[in-house]
Amino acid sequence: MSKSSVKDILSLDPKGQEVELSAWVRTFRSNRFIALSDGSTINTIQAVVDFENHDEALLRKINTGAAITVKGKLIESQGKGQTAEIQVSDVLINGESDPEKYPLQPKKHSMEFLREKAHLRFRTNTFGAIFRVRHALSFAIHNYFNEKGFFNIHSPIITGSDAEGAGEMFRVTTLDLNNVPKTEDGKVDFSEDFFESETNLTVSGQLEAELAALALRKVYTFGPTFRAENSNTSRHLAEFWMIEPEVAFANLTDNMDLVEDFLQYLVDYALKNCKDDLEFLAQREAEEEKSLPQNERRPMGLIERLEFVQSNKFQRITYTEAIDILRNSKPYKKKKFKFPVEWGTDLQSEHERFLVEKHFEKPVIITDYPASFKAFYMRLNDDNKTVAAMDVLFPGVGEITGGSQREERLDVLLRRCKEMGIEEEHVWWYIETRKFGTCEHAGFGLGFERLVMFVTGMTNIRDVIPFPRTPGHCEF
Ligand code: 4AD
Ligand code: MG
């Protein structure tokens, strides 16, 4: 007798052995066939009850969503598409589910509807598959870095610094908001606050990762980051997870080599370890696309896209080259772009999409952006105009990672801080590393949800994180 998961039972050779399974009812057909699921795999197992042997009142409680335990013999399945089924001798109802009231009916629900039911959506096939893939990718990330000799650094969640200098932080305070203490000159008196200074939720663990890399050589962070940017898009969250490797004695080329190897490893890992879930998601996507006009359908299926990225080199171009390509493009000439394409302005997602999806048709790494709109810590190039930055753009997702070689020269860093209005006393600890044993170093940040979007083919970032936080949405 074994009490195991659906996945365990499906891996057994069915020889009439006794099994016990606790799981949730997906469907119950003809008072005879129960499809049971427990999230251990995309697959359900069929349990067959002989209604003559069971009390009718009990059978009436076997409804979609109910938790039940069945005992019986595992035999070869008569039905097609499945290898084994349980010939039930005993049924126990763990938790009933009123079919009139259960919000998830055994039919297809829209993603919008399921977002409103975040407490139950784990129970659908689609979200089961997404969160199993999300887990696998998280595991693969730690695996990759461990194999390569990186150390995982837990950077703080509450911090006094604004790593990106973009001022998009959530405040952390214990002050009474109805009675905020003020200093004589009318400013908030943080000396009465918990930390006795102004604090925020972190927007990035990079600065701390740099401190660690300048001693442990190869490190990475993997944690939640928070941004109060009011962008209600399908690619932005207020709380998202970021992976930030940082490597000492490494330059921009090393950084590009690392990001490409890392992303290809992760895609390869998912292809090898999430086969059933990816096949399910691929089929789901193909179904969805049938209702789209031809020109809005993706050029490749999900599995094909993953295999393509896993086995093709990424295109590497500079920002200046990207601007040239865009200005010579058809949409530019036909005035189809909404935003201007001019050297010195940031690329918008319409430009990035053109480069990745239309021009190169593969992942693109864009380097050497103008210093004017990039962060203070990026290394200034010899032209004094651009910095050693790199963004990786993926089809369907846009920017998946952002990174750079860091400014390791004390004088240049101090100048950049001044130009960008960053007060030295706020980052004195960061600046100090440039005084003692400074060296070339580089790193990047991977937006975990953007990776999960790419691997699962989901088009809205709210569907790849269990509890999405977006402007106006944070109930539980
Ligand atoms: O490009 P970003 O802002 O870079 C940094 O934070 C650097 N400190 C990283 C580093 O060099 N260590 O963010 C990195 C990535 C983006 O490329 C994107 O994938 C993701 O984080 N990202 C978001 N994902 C979801 N919602 C948001 N609001 C995001 N903002 C950035
Ligand atoms: Mg960025």
TrEMBL record:
Name of a matching Pfam family: tRNA_anti-codon
Predominant location: cytoplasm
The reaction(s) this protein catalyses: tRNA(Asn) + L-asparagine + ATP = L-asparaginyl-tRNA(Asn) + AMP + diphosphate + H(+)
Residue ranges annotated for the Aminoacyl-transfer RNA synthetases class-II family profile domain, each copy included: 131-466
Oligomer status and interactors: Homodimer.
Keyword line: Aminoacyl-tRNA synthetase, ATP-binding, Cytoplasm, Ligase, Nucleotide-binding, Protein biosynthesis
Protein name: Asparagine--tRNA ligase
Cellular component terms (Gene Ontology): cytoplasm
Keyword presence, Kinase: no
PROSITE patterns assigned to the protein according to its UniProt record, in alphabetical order: AA_TRNA_LIGASE_II
Organism superkingdom: Bacteria
Location in the cell: Cytoplasm
